[in-house]
Amino acid sequence: MKIRLLLLLLLGEAHSHAASRPNFVLLMADDLGIGDPGCYGNETLRTPNIDQLAEGGVKLTHHLAASPLCTPSRAAFMTGRYPIRSGMASQSLMGVFIFSASSGGLPTSEITFAKLLKNQGYSTALIGKWHLGTNCHNKTDFCHHPLSHGFDYFHGIPMTNLRDCKPGEGSVFTGGIRALVFIPLQIIAITLLTLAVVKCLGLVHVPPGIFVCLLCLAAMILGLLVCFLHYFRPLNCFLMRNHEITQQPISYDNLMQRLTADAAQFIQRNAETPFLLVLSYLHVHTALFSSKDFSGKSKHGAYGDAVEEMDWSVGQILNVLDELKLANNTLVYFTSDQGAHVEEVSAKGEVHGGSNGIYKGGKANNWEGGIRIPGILRWPGVIKAGLEIDEPTSNMDIFPTVVNLAGSPLPEDRIIDGRDLMPLLQGKTQLSDHEFLFHYCNFYLNAVRWRPRNSTSVWKAFFFTPKFNPEGANGCFSTHVCLCHGQFVNQHHPPLLFDISRDPRERNPVSPMTEPRFQEIVDVMQRAADRHTKTLQEVPNQLSLGNILWKPWLQMCCSSSGLSCQCDREEQARRESR
């Protein structure tokens, strides 16, 4: 009898522990500006569901991306660590993966929150955008794939959404094509014309073979361009379900509806067990798209249509949680991977980037507009509704927050840079656990943020800043994104110092003349940066030139007929389900 009672007690404790562990729904927009949702001040974009989420939870107004670019920011979000620690910070001009057949990606040695939650018995899914690599050595090893990083289920794109993925939307390679194709062709044409003239004038004897070679070179360059433009879309823009390609190239027809329905079905399948759902939206990265129910309905063109469709999706997920009576046991988080892409303008002159509100800069730079992101958390009965918190927090903080709530110990063999948000969210502390935050522009330490414990100030010191162009612009329009080193930046000695609490627009740097403690403040921040850099270990660069280049042996294709790569198993599955 005593043994039975003991067993019942243990079973009761286990059941109580399982019941106390919340579900997690983590919603991440792509390139959404902090000035886009209504709850952050936008009066012309309709985001009632995101606004409702904020009303029912906590709105973070000083929430920061660990990087202003997709790939490194998502690596930091998944691991709770600065991307430089995992090798996900580029030392070259290219800061993200653009080819599906690249060999770089989130190393298998990294621990994601999904992996730890899976070990705790959670069902885990990632639906939407991954952008952290796929394969290492062959096209079926899937070493960087979501299923190798703790997710039981994946349905989405392994790469990112690009203009080149949608016919008629232009190309992100325009600058590269100009430099590598048009300029060489112009040089060849001028050379041919010059040689023809001097030959006709009898000034120099020019062998016919030189003309043939130059013409062949021009033909080869044009041929490579045609092949690139023809094959890029099917080879890089495709949907996967787990390890299988289900649609190649991707179709944007009702894409948001399809992914949202799949996310809802995942919740329904796992309503009786703890689950983690990461719904990583393709919206609002270009190429912009929306279904007929949203197209042309907003006041902000194609961009606004996409935002409002994404808001609809947020509402669908919240409705499913309500219908299944899961809302009170589910922590919902909404954010963006970085700030809006202010340089994103279509060939027709339409603005395809969002709003960063009052903040300077945008995606790919560490002015506040590039890293200040929406941060909304809701857990009814646990987190008080309607709160605003203006303390510095990071998207890296989701890792320890989720892991601790799931009952898993944090890894002890590595530095975790994120901090558990629950004490701040529940009012047990009034100060951010981050005294210092470090802002990287790819591999390079760009700025330091200091929240002194005995002051209301938030200091931000820049070691360099990007050169905006054209002069007076709010971004780097000639290069489409701001770059991080060399001729593209201005170095600052001493650092450019701002008090973000008083000057959030970063218009008026302080100086020794205006701030008596200037040198003292800069010295404290420099020492913090030095201590931080001493904690970094050398790791393989996942975004090296060798790792980001296209490798034919890594190219995934849903058919075996050469590079045609055409299939639509998504449509086939929809027909069979009717």
Automatic annotation (TrEMBL):
Residues 22-407 form the Sulfatase N-terminal domain. GO terms for molecular function: arylsulfatase activity; metal ion binding. It comes from the Eukaryota. Pfam families: Sulfatase, Sulfatase_C. The keyword Secreted does not apply. Its cofactor is Ca(2+). One of its GO terms (cellular component) is endoplasmic reticulum. The chain crosses the membrane at residues 179-198, 210-232. InterPro entries: Alkaline_phosphatase_core_sf (IPR017850), Sulfatase (IPR050738), Sulfatase_CS (IPR024607), Sulfatase_N (IPR000917). Residues 1-18 form the signal peptide. Keywords: Calcium, Hydrolase, Membrane, Metal-binding, Signal, Transmembrane, Transmembrane helix. Belongs to the sulfatase family. This is Steryl-sulfatase.
